[in-house]
Specification:
The chain is mostly helical. 69% of the residues lie in helices and 0% in strands. Helix 1 packs across helix 3, helix 4 packs across helix 6 and helix 5 packs antiparallel against helix 6. It is elongated, with a radius of gyration of 22 Å.
Length: 160
């Protein structure tokens, strides 16, 4: 039996099919979070009811997934040398639920200490900071990349 909708919009409304076409076009390029895609469609001028219906349908069809978005985002940012603090913040800004962020971050097999060392070597070479000023400069660099103070202390303590 076909479920009837009581939102005042016809199921074959051209606005909804255009919205769906745009959504699929966006998803063909990269993963989006539910929040991001919905916001992007509304920004294009589609009615909120169309956007909500299209996004819900895409989630049900597993064409749109916050978990998949978070995993893709995490590994792309790891390849860029970013740390867990910055990655978590960006996923939160993209509307991904905290539980999903925690699961994805915990399931990732990442050695953050090695990531930081690789970033330090890439930027400053394999030398230890000779002055406190240089140590602070490196700590600030790592902090801006998204590593926590505790992680930074651990790595820079060995080179101090």
């Amino acid at each position: 039996m076909i479920e009837e909708r009581n939102d005042g919009v016809e199921p074959d409304d051209p606005g909804e099919s255009d919205c769906r076409r745009h959504a699929l076009k966006f998803l063909a390029r990269r993963e989006y979070s539910v929040y991001e895609l919905s916001r992007k469609l509304r920004k294009k001028g589609y009615a909120p009811v169309h956007c909500d219906r299209v996004v819900d349908d895409l989630v049900q069809q597993n064409l749109l997934s916050d978990r998949r978005y978070a995993e893709a985002y995490l590994y792309a940012r790891i390849r860029k040398g970013l740390g867990p603090v910055r990655i978590r913040h960006a996923l939160d800004e993209a509307g991904v639920e905290k539980e999903v962020i925690d699961e994805v971050m915990n399931s990732a097999d990442v050695q953050w200490t090695e990531q930081m060392r690789a970033q330090l070597i890439k930027k400053y070479g394999d030398t230890a900071p000779e002055t406190y000023k240089e140590w602070v400069k490196r700590a600030r660099f790592l902090n801006n990349r998204g590593f926590s103070s505790d992680q930074i202390q651990t790595v820079l303590e060995f080179t101090r």
